[in-house]
Amino acid sequence: MDYATGNPLPPESFRGQPAGAFCGLGNPGSFWCTLEELGIRAVERLEFSDHHEYRPRQLRRMAAQLRQPA
Length: 70
Description:
This protein is of the alpha+beta class. It is built from two helices and two strands, in the order βαβα.
């Protein structure tokens, strides 16, 4: 998502770019493989348990952490 406009961005717009990503799925390996197949280079990866309940405070901390240069 383009945070300046609120518009969604297509996955291709991230191709070759370093990215931070988080996953709360039962099979996180599949998620990471999908990102790689899309050409998205997840340099920072955060994993949570399946059906993790994200709290607003936690999301703010994660966003700040993922904004930091790798």
